TrEMBL record:
Highest taxon of the lineage: Bacteria
Chain coiled-coil ranges: none
Organism: Modestobacter caceresii
Name this polypeptide is given: Sarcosine oxidase subunit gamma
InterPro entries recorded: SoxG, TrmE/GcvT-like
Amino acid sequence: MAELLRTHPLEAWSTALERLPDTVGITVEPFVAMAVVRLGAVGAASEALGAGLPTTPNTWVPAGSGRAVWLGPDEWLLSSTTDTPEELEARIRAAVVPLGGSVTDVSAQRIGLRLTGERVRDVLAKGCSIDLHPRVFGRGSSAQTLLGQAGVVLMALSDAGDDFVVLVRSSFAGYLADWLLDAALEFTPTHDS
């Protein structure tokens, strides 16, 4: 049986994204394993997982080689850049099932886009209704929100407001890439022919 090749939903957009100026950089993040955890006993789970789960709403924390993102009072999104989806799910399952929790592999559900540059907040503000000022939405902040009418998980990676990760459902990735490219046009220098 032939092995299926993994292709990225935004391969067709890579050239257009690479042409953006440094003031609004958009890069596609590599595939990562992701799992959603549902659990009531956070303290015991954090100990079993070897990484603290954030308990403050709308935050994320580094967790091993990935991130742990607060999605709700008893729900988190965990990612790993080193585990396969099967390894991540098995590791989390071993930690949370004995505590009455559950885990679901959602690796194929979302992809990540890294948005960087001094004008990236301006681009995001065109289609996002949350306050992205660094005093309000600094490093460690996250939100489930709409960006250009696509549901996303938005994470701030810096306190300067110039580095974000957007997780979007794979089926909406092309739409969001087109939207971001259009929103960034204002900040792209024009070239006279």
